[in-house]
Amino acid sequence: MEDTARGSTPSAPLGVYVAGFLTRRLPLNVRSAKLGIIFANALLQHDEGQDSESLDLITKLNAILHMNLTDHLNRSSNRALALQEYLDTVVALSSKGKRTHAELEARLTARKVELRGERKTVKGLERTIDKASRKGDFSIAGMKSQELEERQGSLKDLEVEEETLERLVDTYSELMEMADERLAAILANREVLIAGVRVKEVDGLDALGIVEGGRRRRR
Length: 219
Prior knowledge:
Elements: H1 2-7, H2 16-20, H3 33-46, H4 52-65, H5 69-74, H6 79-135, H7 138-188, H8 190-195
Helix pairs in contact: 3-4, 4-6, 4-7, 6-7
């Protein structure tokens, strides 16, 4: 089933999305398969090594959760087995996703601590340079200016990593919520899915008493 998830991953042209991805926040809605893949590929362009496993898992989750389950079951010779295999795959990927989400949150917390320290250092250097310049101590000012430039570069790298981690954490949060919703829906309608029955939503359906949790018509 994981192979199916990998093979069914939709593709989308990246174009301007990749170019502008790290300079602005996109509306984050991974319930759109296309945006999910654009999001993953854009991040791969930024840091292919460090977060490749996290992004690979996003791609798998995105594909399996956007799979047309009805079509998948219709193509299977054993609907019950196919549904169980699908459930097992979603559960396995979701469990791994929750662990990855926790790890990413821990990394994000650590980066925020580093950022606070780096910003404090940068501000301290700026004050030192300003004080030295006003005193005419240009030797100290020049030396500290070089250090400031290095620290500002480090600060920028940390800010980019923080933003990347925030987006990954947000993406995993949405995917985990979506996985929980799909699992609950399948488990509540397992027999219907195996039987291949489809119910058409029309006015008066709730009144028939065949939809659990439906809103009752007011008398």
